[in-house]
């Protein structure tokens, strides 16, 4: 039932953006930036403040996620070895792996799996921002690409600042005054439907016929099937993760591709249309595959 509500909000955003002429791509982008820069950090701050931090993600979970990601990255790179240059292969590989853990993952995992799952999600988001994206930029710079990447951007990222602030407040026992915490709770409640509505609105501005022409079947297969399958295998058989850790990590791996990959493709002027195609089509298809993985992991665990 919860999944139906989530899909309904996405469809509402899509219909509103498609039907109203004054809803432009530029306006939706402004709303998206506000959502990620303000609503998301407030949501994370409130969640960490009230969470039991004794249940932080285990090293085994981190190892399973990173191990699966590295294996699949090398696999896609090998399959793309005949591309014109290494840039395209790297961008395509990342587009088949990097999950939209903030925009889609938060909206799905927060309401479905409880507070311990929230900490797992935030741990993966933290890893993606502080490790995966910097490592990818270093890889691209090593190939001779220019970039405005800097570690200063990481430590000033509002999501990172919110996570760190939440941990500090939680661990030091500081009390947030009731009126302020109530405001945080209200803003946090607005964040999840905002993510979904913005996602639906963003989808309305893509031409599905044009994107469908891109040869991305392999990338979609890796993103929606092989990456979560590899994550499951490593988590269950190599690192002995708990049922909840396995479920949440696999769901995160099966999430559609994040918008950060398109930003990187624009920055390095490589595989932009392929990346846009993977983002849009993986988002649409994931509405089905996420539910499928949830059922499969429930049965196997």
Quick rundown:
The protein has 14 helices and no strands. It has 301 residues and is mostly helical. It is globular.
Output the helix-strand order: HHHHHHHHHHHHHH
Query: Could you tell me the radius of gyration in angstroms?
Result: 19 Å
Q: Roughly what is the average pLDDT, rounded to an integer?
A: 84
End-to-end separation in angstroms reads: 22 Å
The number of strands is 0
Helical run tally: 14
Low-confidence stretches: none
Helix percent reads: over 70%
The outline comes out as: globular
| Helix and strand composition category | mainly alpha
Percentage of β-strand residues: under 5%
Largest sheet, in brief, is: none
Keywords:
301 residues, 79% helix, mainly alpha, 14 helices
Describe this structure in words.
This protein is an all-alpha fold and 301 residues long. 79% of the residues lie in helices and 0% in strands. 41% of the residues are buried.
Give the topology, please.
Layout: H1 2-19, H2 25-49, H3 59-79, H4 86-95, H5 101-113, H6 115-142, H7 151-155, H8 158-172, H9 178-203, H10 208-212, H11 217-238, H12 243-253, H13 259-267, H14 272-300
Helix pairs in contact: 1-9, 2-8, 2-9, 3-4, 3-11, 5-6, 5-9, 5-12, 6-12, 11-12, 11-14, 12-14, 13-14
